[in-house]
Amino acid sequence: MSVQEFDAFLAKRVKEVEKEKKVDWINIHDEWVHQVDDFFEMVRKFLQKYVDDGKVVIRDEELTICEEHLGIYKTKKLYVQVVGEEVVFTPIGRLIIGGYGRIDMEGRSGKVKFILIEEDVEGFKTSSRISVGGIKPGEGIAGKKRHAITWKIVTPPPVIQFVKITPDSFYEVLMGVIGG
User: Residue 124: what pLDDT?
Assistant: First the structure.
């Protein structure tokens, strides 16, 4: 390796490290904890009528999560008792591939994943990039503007889709994990 190549390598690494330092991990953490709270509030609203009727009991419990860059932090886990059946909503983490966070809902008959994702995304898209003329894959997309994000239900493979959460779609997946 020549001195010029090493100098170029060091200059590139300095730029990469500076770019990483600009990520506001504290803000990302705070937003994530708020988004988990908002998700649980949505669940409570969907079930409030049944809580009032005594058919559903909801409680939460503190949960400690450890994620790279975010460190160790506390959030909540939500327990829903539906006529003797327990369903648990567990935040998995903020730093996931393809989204801005994930919460799993699990009951005796299965598990459903909820993902925080851009509103207009309906499923996974496969693409490939080829490096031409020194432009490396992924360059030029870092400044891509983020669209509004929302929680969606993730359908199981092989055809993974992201379904908008409505009262009807929520009750359907809730019944699925209970065995209804």
Answer: 63
